[in-house]
Specification:
Largest sheet: none
Helix content: over 70%
Number of strands: 0
Radius of gyration: 27 Å
Number of helices: 20
Structural class: mainly alpha
Oligomer: single chain
Shape: elongated
Strand content: under 5%
Length: 351
Amino acid sequence: MPDKAIPQFIKSIEIDPNNATAHHSLAIILAQKGETGDAIAHYRKALQINPNSAESHQNLGVELSKQNHIDEAIEHYRKALQLKPDDAETQFALGEALARQGKTEQSIHHLNSAVQIKPDHAEAHINLGGQLLSQGKLDEALEHLNRAVEIDPQLAEAHSNIGIIMIQKGNLDAAITHFQEAVRINPDFEPAQNNLNRALAIRNSMDMQADGVQKELADNPDDPVLRYKMGNIYLSKGELNSAIAEFEKAVALEPEFLAARNNLALTYAADRQYERALAAFKELIALDPENPSIDYNMAVLYALQNKVTESIAWLKKAIDRGYSNWDLIKTDKDLANIRESHDYQLLVEGH
């Protein structure tokens, strides 16, 4: 009965103006009623009396955030963490505030702390996934978003972000499923609805393309280019096994079809068939020995298997042959397993 509690706290403060607990408790109720300004005033008074209240600092930070006073909110979150570093809610709130300032790395640090302290903190997993997604770290983002959905399947934002990742990974059907779930949970979630409409339009277009290529294949089943086109359609839909089958047919029909061989190797890798991917890339190297992109892909495959020495050797070979996409070399998540090695650091030094 908050309305009955308010006058009692006010009387308590009239009797003893230095009762920090009364100011703090009154601020909580005022905040719940949406009276943010008055809540802030009482939290400030509580902290004047007792500056070592982590909860008052944290709650004041929340109310200041509501009024977009982000710098001051962050200041109070940091004070709260000095007093109580293992508070998941404060770590989460600070991470959220830093994200609003565009300080992605700092935000990720505190959101990570929040989920380490409280592994079932669904909101922290969602926000952490969103920050990682903004950095292009799709696999890490997906891990946290999936965890959020495990904790609470009714999180529309998590489903929507998973859909975005599935689009980028080429799994259109999975993306549509998650966008549909996001819209089912929250029919007013406009970004999810827009993404769903776009994804459905893409699938309809791809289905029409597939129908056209299938008709051509009925008349020309041994045309390697048509098999290659069909493989690409399956790949863009996330149907890896069907894509592999078509690329294999294209290569069998035309052994020197380099684009088909390249896409076959990449699809093996996407399906985590690493040994088959390595073998396919080695066959491609025999046909196109001076292509540094193939060497780079070999480095990635070995890195994914945590074979550091082999990965470094292929990466060096790619660079020696002219591979110069240093932004990718330094940020590619697939090279994460070799990034701490001394040899890798020597390779990227100065770039």
